[in-house]
Design goal:
alpha/beta; UDP-N-acetylmuramoyl-L-alanine:D-glutamate ligase; Hypothetical Protein Yjia, Chain: A,domain 2; 8-stranded mixed β-sheet; 13 strands
């Protein structure tokens, strides 16, 4: 029988994985320490027994591919995996997606005192001495937002109404408990039947997963932007700093005038931005057709929704000011995009090609290719702020 895995993530110190292990007498507890990964050393505990691994390539993807996945394939029954604080559960689930291993649940532990400042800040893991390996340029915001957003259930160290309002909109399906009142059995039982459970979309899924509330609360609101006209690439470039200021999370499919047959994926957390290419747009309506290999558990949305190019962001203030609305609307291209000549389209295309390749520092941020079938080298977030 294949393993039934419960992943426990979080940047803060906690004993939630141990609580789950004690509540399941037949389970196995797996824990990794990646603090020595830059030197090619990984420490792994299985039910308290330590194994020191030496890897030829000190990177997270090698750790997952060469150690964690083979280990889980050898186990059966419930396995509790306490992830290293710098690991994002989405990257682990991606590595498990082509195996017989079943993800029972993803639980993320949130430090209520620091999460909001971390989620809206610009510090990198390297700034705090937490970089997993050479070349890991993720921000703290990308890490904590990614850990929370992918969770099926949350454990919070305290109670903060603003944080609760953010989480209601970021991960609306996830049940929550306080750490000092934790009942792990009840928490797992409260996870709804339509929870993610390790599944992920291919860039064409719903941008409002779980139907979050759209009305403001405690200064937090969800802002949606849809437009049938494409973005002008350089106007979008010039508008990003204003559009993303004060935003906890932005996710959206972007239609750019210079690439009328391609969708770009734009996602931000705090001061970090990532841009990639999920694939080609479908012609003729119906369901979306991926230009690249789809993910095993992909969800797809009607073509009309993609062509309208929705962007959704969770903000920490009550409204979008006139300056922000004007800048957002001005980034949309005017005129007939199909009437542009070849020279004009080529001029528009250059910055977008650079952006999709991830070279240079266009838009004031490093970027990488996302949703292309291969996970990024350090999990799903490898961008840093300007």
């Amino acid at each position: 029988m294949a393993a039934q895995v419960v992943l426990v993530a979080g940047l803060t110190r906690h004993d939630v994985a141990d609580e789950l292990w004690r509540a399941s007498p037949e389970s196995v507890l797996v824990r990794h320490d990646l603090s020595g990964l830059a030197d090619g050393v990984v420490r792994r505990w299985v039910d308290g027994r330590l194994t020191v691994l030496e890897l030829a390539h000190g990177c997270v993807s090698c750790t997952l591919r060469l150690d964690l996945v083979p280990l889980l394939e050898r186990l059966d029954g419930r396995v509790i995996v306490h992830l290293d604080p710098v690991l994002e559960p989405e990257a682990v689930c991606f590595a498990l997606s082509e195996t017989e291993i079943d993800v029972e649940a993803v639980i993320t532990v949130i430090d209520s005192a620091t999460w909001l400042s971390d989620a809206t800040g610009g510090d990198t893991l390297d700034d705090r001495g937490m970089r997993a390996a050479e070349g890991d340029e993720r921000t703290i915001a990308q890490l904590v937002v990614g850990q929370a957003e992918f969770a099926d259930a949350l454990v919070l160290t305290g109670d903060d109404p603003v944080l609760n309002a953010v989480l209601d909109r970021l991960v609306p399906l996830a049940p929550r408990q306080r750490l000092d009142e934790l009942d792990v059995t009840a928490l797992l039982a409260a996870i709804p039947g339509n929870a993610r459970r390790g599944g992920f979309d291919d860039g064409f899924g719903s941008l409002l997963y779980g139907r979050p509330p759209l009305e403001p609360a405690h200064g937090v609101s969800v802002v949606r932007f849809t437009e049938r006209r494409p973005f002008h690439p350089m106007r979008l470039h010039n508008a990003l700093d204003v559009l993303l200021d004060g935003v906890v999370r932005t996710r959206g499919r972007v239609w750019v005038a210079s690439q009328p047959d391609q969708a770009l994926w734009l996602e931000s957390a705090g001061g970090g931005l990532r841009v990639g290419q999920p694939g080609a747009l479908a012609r003729g309506g119906g369901r979306l057709v991926r230009g690249r290999r789809g993910t095993p558990r992909g969800r797809r949305s009607p073509m009309g929704r993609l062509l309208r190019r929705p962007l959704a962001g969770t903000r920490r203030d009550h409204h979008v000011g006139r300056t922000r609305r004007d800048r957002r609307d001005s980034a949309v291209r005017t005129g007939d995009r199909r009437g542009a000549g070849a020279d004009q389209r080529a001029r528009l295309r250059r910055p977008v090609r650079r952006l999709a390749r991830g070279d240079g520092n266009l838009m004031g941020h490093n970027s990488f290719r996302r949703h292309t079938g291969d996970p990024p080298p350090h999990g799903p977030s490898t961008a840093r702020p300007s």
